[in-house]
Structure formats: C-alpha cells, structure tokens
Design a protein that fits this description.
- This protein is α/β, with parallel strands linked by helices.
- The protein folds into two domains: 137 residues, NAD(P)-binding Rossmann-like Domain (Rossmann fold, 3-Layer(aba) Sandwich); 179 residues, Dihydrodipicolinate Reductase, domain 2, CATH 3.30.360.
- It has nine helices and 13 strands.
- Strand 3 and strand 4 form a beta hairpin.
- Helix 4 packs across helix 7 and helix 4 packs across helix 9.
- The longest helix has 17 residues.
- The structure holds NADP nicotinamide-adenine-dinucleotide phosphate.
- The site of NADP nicotinamide-adenine-dinucleotide phosphate (NAP) has 30 residues, from helix 1, helix 2, helix 5 and helix 9.
Length: 325
Amino acid sequence: MRLAVLGATGAVGRTMLRVLEERRFPADALVPLASPRSRGAKLVWRGREWRVEAPEPGVFRGCDVALFSAGGERSREWAPRAADEGAVVVDNSSAWRLDPGVPLVVPEVNAARIRERPRNIVANPNCAAIQLVVALEAIRRAAGLRRVLATTFQSVSGAGQKGIAALEAELAGAQAQGSPFAAAIAGNVIPCIGPRRESGWNEEEQKIRNESRKILGLPGLAVAATCVRVPVRIGHSIAATVETEQPLPLEAARAALRAMPGLELVEGAHDPLPRDVAGLDVIRVGRLRADPDLPNVLHFWVVADNLRKGAATNAVQIAEQILRE
Ligand SMILES: NC(=O)c1ccc[n+]([C@@H]2O[C@H](COP(=O)([O-])OP(=O)(O)OC[C@H]3O[C@@H](n4cnc5c(N)ncnc54)[C@H](OP(=O)(O)O)[C@@H]3O)[C@@H](O)[C@H]2O)c1
C-alpha cells in the first residue's frame, strides 16, 4: 500500500508520520511531499530514509490514500488532482470542510459519513472543533443540545512550526522573526485567531460554529465561540457551556461523558491540563458543573493535543476506516 503525505515536514505532517508508525498503518511505501524549499530533504520513517519531493502532476498515481496538511491553497489545488489520480484524500486544511460533497469527520461521532465522498475527499475538522464535538456528542446522546458557548485557549502549535518557533524565540528573550501572531505571545494572550470578519467574528470562531454544526448534523444549533491564543506549546483547552434540550442531572452527564469513546472524564483533585495530554490521543473533560441559576445548563472544560487528536490522529483514524471498507 502506497501512502502520500503532503506537508510531511510541517508540525502536523511530522506528527502524522509518528502516529502512522505507532498505529502500524499498513503502508509499505511513503511519498513525502512539501514545498519546493524542502525538495531533497530526508525524513526517517519506519527506520528508512525517504526523500521529500514537491507535488507535481502524476505524483499521487499508485497511492491509495493521501494525507494533506499543507494549508488550504495547496489543498484546493492538489486534492482534486490526487483524487483524479486514484488516491482518497484526507485533508487537514479548511479548504473542503464545508463543501456539501465532502464529509467532515470525527470518527467517534460520525464515522459512517466517510463512505459518502463523491469527490473522494474526506475533510478533517478544525483542531478545536474536534475536541469540542466529541464532548458535545456525549451530551447530545443523553439529553439533546440547544445551545453551545465555547471559549478556547489554543496553543501556539496550532499555528504550525512558525507558532512554536515564535514562542521559543520570545521565551529565550529574542524577538520572533516571522511570527504568525498579531502580538508577542510569551507572557500574553491574544483574543484573535485567524482574520477578523466585518461582523466582528474571527475566522477560527466561525470554523468552530460551522464545523460543529456539520459534524453533529445539527445545522440550526446555536454555537458561539471566542478563540484565544495562549503561550502553551501543545494542547488546546476549551471552557464550554451547553444548554441541553432535556434536563440532564450531573450524575447522568458524568455517565454520558464516561461512555463516550475517545473521551476521559477527570474528576477529583487533578483538573485536566493541556500539558498532561501533549503526546496523547485522549480528549479529557473535567470541571463539570451544573449552572447555579439556569436550568438545563452545564459547564465543563475540555483539553486535547491539537497536533494529535486535533489533526494527525483524527486523519489517520479516517484513513484506517477507508482501508477497512
Ligand atoms: N497545527 C495544528 O494544530 C493544526 C490542526 C488542524 C489542522 N491544521 C492544518 O494543517 C495544515 C498544516 O498545518 P501545520 O500546523 O503543520 O503547518 P506548518 O508547520 O507550517 O507546515 C506546513 C507544511 O506545508 C508545506 N507547504 C508549504 N507550502 C507548500 C507548497 N507550496 N507546496 C507543498 N507543500 C507546502 C510545508 O513545507 P515546507 O516545510 O517545505 O515549508 C510544511 O510541510 C494547515 O492547513 C492547518 O490549518 C493544523
């Protein structure tokens, strides 16, 4: 089985290679692709060196699956070509996520959608949306969903290698060259991720709203997010407030969260922390509380590794499901 990885040198692409190794993904040939800047570089995967190429027509021929994580522009250009050349594309960018002909999948929530892919492209959701919807799906199964408010605390690796480099340079006392952030990130929090729209919402906030609705299959669900970049290396955190359709006593909410695949409910002295999930695939939920004033409203906290479950692992899970078909 031949596997292409576009964006193989990036923060998500490198994590994909690691996750593929760990999960013994049944590929025996790798086609690592990146920008022309990386052409000729060597990547070690499964104990062998693989030469990085830049994408060009014909490169996906013979590949069964192509994992894309090289940004929206590259995905818009290369995903249809890769599909034409016979590969099923699992795309990490936002380019295809809202296309009605492209399923948007978190396997624990809507794996069945993977089969409905007329373009032969399956989209991997936004990193914060992935960890949020797994918790929302648990609550939805128990009591339905009426309204969701989410405030995110997103790590610098969500902005790729440049985001990590900016934090590291600033922590070392230097000025970050080529920082993807609008302000210094060390010792700061920045309440803006992605371009700001005329409406006042930022792009990341719109992604969380639109993508959560599509994944959950609830196009009318009220969802509002405030997205904040924080000086954490890896691991996004979300403070979520959910209004349910039916009453959901705390004990029943706990049981629903415990029953959800991919999720771990953490209670007691230790709260779920982003540092503790860095390098793991699990989504942890904690700080579960019933609203003191409003009926049918719960508050909780969700953390996950944005490079793994928020990107690479979710994409590899989708690819595994495609191979199982
Ligand atoms: N970071 C996250 O938490 C996260 C989560 C979910 C989804 N995503 C999405 O995943 C994608 C990659 O993110 P990242 O964080 O890994 O970014 P990154 O660290 O900046 O990596 C970008 C990758 O794209 C490659 N690339 C850039 N220009 C290219 C070109 N013209 N042709 C071919 N390859 C090109 C880069 O190659 P070079 O090394 O040669 O420049 C690199 O391999 C983005 O679409 C992002 O939105 C990221």
